[in-house]
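Format notes (please read before filing issues)

Several people have asked whether sequences and structure tokens are stored in separate files. They are not. Every record keeps both together, in the order shown below: the sequence lines, then the token lines. Line labels are part of the format and must not be stripped during preprocessing.
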Amino acid sequence: MGMADTNSRGIAIGLMRQAMVFLEKAEDWDTAARLQHALDVALAARPLQPGEELDPQSAALIAAIPLSSD
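Then the structure lines:
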């Protein structure tokens, strides 16, 4: 897995965690439970390595900034 893939995965996990915050605030428990399951499966398959972990707010900011034209 390349550096871009590693960074993308960390951002994706961070975004999922940020989405959990919003779902919990909205008391959307069914969707939050499914998203939590998806997070558990993703992290069980391959835990984030040092340097991949992003806090959810940083992941949201990074995802909002277009870094390339892909």
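For reference, the curators noted about this record: Residues 33 and 49 are 24 Å apart (CA to CA). The radius of gyration is 13 Å.
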